[in-house]
Records
---
Amino acid sequence: MAVQAGWYSNIDKVVRRMEGDAVRSGLKAAGVLLHTIIKNRLDEGYTTGAFVTGLVATTVIRGRPGPRTIWVGTPNKVAMLWELGHFNRFTQQYERVEVFRVSLEQNVYILARAFADRYMEKLNELAHTRLAKALALPI
C-alpha cells in the first residue's frame, strides 16, 4: 500500500458558510433601513397627523434574518386596521392607508443597494478571516 501525502480543503463548506453569513448581514442592513423608513413615515400618522400618539411608530419591529428573508412589521392592531382597511366611525368612510408595503415598493432600489453594499463588505471581511485560514497550508 502506497502512502500518499496531500492536503484536503473544506473550501466548499467555508464558502457556503461565508455566503450565508453575507446574505444574513445584507438582509439585516436592508431590514434596519426599512424599519427606519417605516418608523419615520409613521411618526406623521396615517392621515392628517391630528391624532398621532406615536404608539404605532414605536411598535414597528424587525425580525432576525432567516436564510433568505427578513421580517419588518408590527403587532399593533391599530396599524393592522389602517393597513388592511376599516370603516372609520369618525369620518363615516372606509379608509385604508398602506405604509408598510408602499414603503417597501418605493424604496426597493435603496434597500437593494443597502443589501448589496453590506453583502460585499461582509464577504470581503470574511475572506480575510475565514478563507485565509482555510487556505493556509500546514507547515
Note: Helices lie at 11-42, 55-58, 77-84, 100-106, 108-135.
---
Amino acid sequence: MGRSAMHSLLGWVFGLSIALCFQCAHAQGGFPQFTQAEQEWIKAHPIVQFSIHEKYRPYWDSGIYPKLLSKLKDCSGLEFSPKWRSSDEAGIHQIRNGEVSPVIDPNQKLESALLGRLTEPIFWGQDVMIATQSNSASSFNPKIEKAVFFDRGYDFSEPIDQARLLNSPELIIQQLLSGEAHFAVMPLRLAIHLSKQLNLQQIQIRHLGHQPFAYRWLIADQDRIFHSIVQKSLREADPLFMGDLLAIPTLPSNQSQYLANWL
C-alpha cells in the first residue's frame, strides 16, 4: 500500500473513531445539537460568570452546584465561574455593570432589576423543619414567635415576618442551639448538609407538607441564546447522572425512623 493510501486509510479510521465517540457520548448524554448562532455564542463567551448569593455556600460545599456546572460544561464546552454576592444590592451592581450573565436563584428584587426571563426549573427542593431534641416534641406552627426561616428567595405558603427570614444557615443553627429559636424551616439539602458538616446529633429534621419548589436561573434578554444553550444541555445530559445528582435526597437513617413518628 502506498504512503498516500496509508494516510487516507488512517484519516478515515481516525474520522470514524471520532464519529463513533461522539455517537456513544451523545447516547450517554452530553452533546446537544446547537444551532450556528448558539455555537457562535459559545465561541464568543467561553467563560460564563454567574451571580450566586453567599447563603448558598453550603450548597456549593455539598457538591451539587459544582457537579451540575461540570456536567453543563461537558455538554456545552462553557466554563462556569461563580461571582459571589453578599446582598441584593451587590447582585444588582453585578447585573448593571455587566459582570454576570445568569443569576442563580434570584428573588423578586433581583428579577425587577434585570430585563430577562427565568429558566425552566434547574432542579427541585423541598422545605423541612429542624429542631433540637428539647423542642422536637412541640407541635410546629410557623406563626409562633420562635420559628426562623431560611430566606430562599421564594414566597412561602403564608406571609412570613421579614425579621424571621435569615440569609445565614450558620446563624439559624446558632439560634436553635442557643434556644433563641425553637424551630427553623430550610431546604432539605441544606438541612442534611449542615447536620453532617457540623455533626449535629441533637438536631432533628422533619418534612413539611409544602409542595416542592423550583430552583431557577434568571438570564438577561440580551443573553437569550445562552438560555437555549442551558436548556438543551440539561435535556441532553446523562439522565442517570442527573437523576442521582438532582433527586430530592432522603433523610439519614438515624433520622428517618424519627421522622416516621411525625407523619
Note: The chain has two domains: 32-122+216-246, 127-211.
---
Amino acid sequence: MDNNNQINLTPINPTPVQNPVELPSTKSGNGIIWVIVAIVVVILVGAGLYLYSNQKNSATPATTTNPQPAQQENLDTAVNSIDVKGVDTDFGAVDKDLQSL
C-alpha cells in the first residue's frame, strides 16, 4: 500500500456541544405591558369624561342679569366714596425700600 492511499484512522476528539440552557419563562414583561395598557385606558376614559362634562356645561348658555338701577346707584356712590388721595404717601415707604436695593 502506498502512503498516499492510507486513511488516517486516529480518533479525533470532537468538542462537546453545549446545549443552550433554557431559563424558565417569566411573564413579567407581559405583565408590565398590561399595566401600561390599563393606565393608558384609564387616562383616555378620564379625558373623555372631562371633555364630555365640559361640553355639556358649555352647551347651557350663561344667563347674565343686569343690575337694577337702584343697585347701580348704590355701587356708584360706593365707588365714588373711596378715598384715593393718599395713595402716593402709602407707597412712599415702598419706594424708599426699593431705592435702597
Note: The helical segments are 28-59, 69-80, 87-90, 92-100.
---
Amino acid sequence: MAHKGIRTYTGDEISNIALGQGGFDIINAGTVTAASKGIDHWVAFKAINAASNVLALTPDEYPGDHFSTTGLSGGSAVTVPDGETVYGCFNSINSSAIVMAYRG
C-alpha cells in the first residue's frame, strides 16, 4: 500500500503516532532500514543523548523528500540537535549517534 501521509491514518492512529504509541526503534550509529525491523517506515525520529548527523531517506515514491542537505538521496547528512524531533516518512536512517525512530 502506498503511503498517503497523514491521510493514511484514522484519527485514533494519528493520536497514537503523536504520542509514540505505535512503538519505536533505538538506532545506534550506522544505517538501519525499516524493512530490517519488519515495518514499512518510521513517521519521525529524535536525536537522544547527543547531537546527531542524520541522513534519512523516504520511499521511492516520494522523491525529493529525503532528509538531507539537498533533499535528495545523494545529499549529505544534516545535524539534528539533541532532543529535536524530525517528522516525515522514512524507510532508511543513517545516524552518527543514537536516535529514536518512531514507528507509524
Note: The chain is about 10% helix and 35% strand.
